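Quick entry, no commentary yet.
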Amino acid sequence: MFQFLIDKLAGMGHRRIYSNAPLALTVVELRHTLTPPLNEEEQAALKKLLSDVFPIARPLESAAVNIPLNAVGQATTKLTIDPRYMTRDSTTAVTFRADGIVVETTAYKRRSDLRELLRRAVEARLAVSAPDGMNRLGLRYINEIRADVDTPGDWSKWISPALTGMAELHVGDTSRTQAWQGMATFGDQHCGVVLRHGNLDGYAVAPDGDLRRVTDPPGPFYLLDLDSYWTPDPDIPTLDWWNIEQRYDEAALSAYGLFEQLITDTYREEVLREHHEQ
């Protein structure tokens, strides 16, 4: 059934592009087999290959990793620094980890633009030091839906009743649902979309992060966080663009198809402005 949805979406003649899209952050993560950390010479080569798009080097310090030293549980803390390169406007970045490549942007326009950035990053990585294979491809779209709401029940005007039906529940005669969060998984371990959603307040993506973004004033919003993924089964394919491109489009279209089911026509007409992509 999930593959049928992918095939149906791939054959659609037109897809909506929203000029007033609610995307706060878009991330594509390509996980590959573990490699040694890139040395200074390899990092310099990466920067040279990507400098026309990502001219700013801004290394990223990863989270601390506890490495056990003996059986009694003593450990030490190891910090790793990953090469990271950003656009001059600080809206888009590419990070090269020992186990993957991450491209993230707060200025998403269309899937073909992000796909081109991923292609550039993959080809640069292969030119410098090629990993043995790919383990996972994931695209994450974090949407902050903002609209005119006075009560939690008002979200049903903008968001599908499949998600906002919780607002109809109540305890006693007057105590209705005020807030809810949920998660749903579509597909299986090999291919699918994980949806996280709920009515929240403030921001899903911090406005003062490394990536610059245009933000609305803090307030109520509806979170639609879609993680569309593909993992190989059972063999580990080589890391090359031929293997990646099709999987990227399938994952992007799957997330697109689900998003379209989660918003109402009223939201499209009154909040979003759209045109079509061939």
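second:
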Amino acid sequence: MRDYFPKNLRLLCSYHMSTSEVARQLGMNRQQIMKYLAGSAYPSARSMRRLCDFFGVEEYEIIMPDDQFRDIVKLKPKVPIASDLTPPVLSSLLKTAARQSSQLGTYAGYYYEFRYSFTSQRLVLKSLLKVQEHDGLMMYKSIERLKDQRNKAEPYLKPTNVNVFKYTGILLMIGNRIHMLDQEALLGQELSHMILFPPYRNSISNLRGMKMGVTATAAHEPIVSRVVLEKIGRSVDVRRAMQRCGLYAPKGEEVPASVLKYLGEVDGEDPILFKGEAED
């Protein structure tokens, strides 16, 4: 599988101005990256992680056959955020987010995100989310693993691009509420928006609020659900944390009672707050 790495890396680099720019932003030696591109060297585990984090891909993806990799990446050239291209309201929001970087630094770390699934009725989706500072802004990444965890007899399977969805977004404080806006990272066909209540004490354990998005079905129906972010630390074993992510029965051991109480019981009405349907 390593044979595909140089070609896939070349594709990722092609969306930047030059290999030198990639090396500069990564803080890596240009000659080393050139060796990777030529296939005369293969990155160490640490260097591979840096490359994948920078380009927004997973290690198992970057060594896939190049035709499959090209299909799932679907990258597009980036448009620079310049004052003459950015609408004033968006420019103002970005400046606000930049000013809040130090204030919001306390939210940095890993979280489990709990909400009722938008596509698997009455099951709780447990996902992994990481908040971190990046280029002067508080950004976050989240990973959804759509695996039904109710069957414990099923062996652990390595995540694939079929059952794992990744999102990247920005965090800012507006009107004394935390707003988290993200986009699905591979195809860019989904946006979601969380509005959370900030904690009224120094320590952060849970953040509560609501999440608005669309279903993953072809209809992309608008949908709203309560959501809870449970902070699990500044540093975690990501592989182990991901193994605990997936779809759970509401009263399962992986869904804390306090979380379920906020999300809503399933004994009565559907806990989803709103689900729109297209007109016939």
